[in-house]
Design a protein that fits this description.
single chain, 203 residues, mainly beta, seven-stranded antiparallel β-sheet, 13 strands, globular
């Protein structure tokens, strides 16, 4: 069975994007094989953000390591909460540990999958651009655009984002003014953090 989100559901899941972003969602429900539970899959269309926008609009920017995850519910939706150790707080004045949340997850035999939701794994090192949702959770700005994986190789630590993980479009057919988030793929972690700090200093 397929349909669109009700206004109440859309407001409840409004934590999926910053308030300034406009997006559309469709919800698909499929009956589970051995249970009466449904598995909603929400597909989002995400406005493309320039690097300057994502730095300016994110109240928190951190270099952190993922420690563990847990799943809880808020209204009709499941949320997966990730606990992270802050390695370097570039914006927002946070220290110690933070919690980052993404819609979807599995709880009591019910699974909700949200298309484009950002994924984390324990032990992963990341640079995150975060905003606070209306229900109080902290999320990555612009879905995957707000998460850079830190990869360690022969050339040291480098950052990479997967902006192909969601349907990202230019608002009203216009390219976002500024540098593309994708243009930082493969940059060294130190250079990337320096670029963030230069943009913060220019605010």
């Amino acid at each position: 069975m397929a349909g669109t989100l009700s206004q109440a559901q859309a407001r409840e899941l409004s934590g999926a994007m910053p308030p300034a972003d406009k997006y559309r969602m469709r919800i698909f429900r499929t009956a589970a094989v051995l249970a009466a539970a449904f598995v909603p899959v929400v597909a989002a269309v995400v406005p493309r953000l320039a690097f300057e926008q994502i730095v300016d609009q994110s109240p928190r920017i951190v270099h952190a390591r993922v420690l563990e995850s847990s799943v809880g519910s808020s209204g009709q939706f499941l949320w997966t909460h990730f606990r992270l150790q802050v390695l370097d707080a570039m914006k927002g004045g946070v220290s110690g540990e933070i919690m980052v949340s993404e819609p979807g997850g599995t709880l009591n035999g019910v699974t909700q999958q949200i298309s484009g939701a950002v994924e984390f794994r324990a032990g992963q090192e990341v640079v995150l651009f975060l905003y606070q949702t209306p229900i109080g959770y902290w999320r990555t700005s612009g879905y995957w655009q707000g998460k850079f994986d830190v990869e360690t190789g022969g050339n040291g630590k480098r950052v990479r984002t997967d902006s192909t993980a969601a349907a990202i479009v230019n608002p009203a057919g216009r390219a976002a003014a500024g540098r593309s988030v994708d243009s930082f793929n493969g940059m060294s972690l130190d250079d990337f953090k320096a670029a963030i700090r230069r943009q913060l200093a220019a605010q």
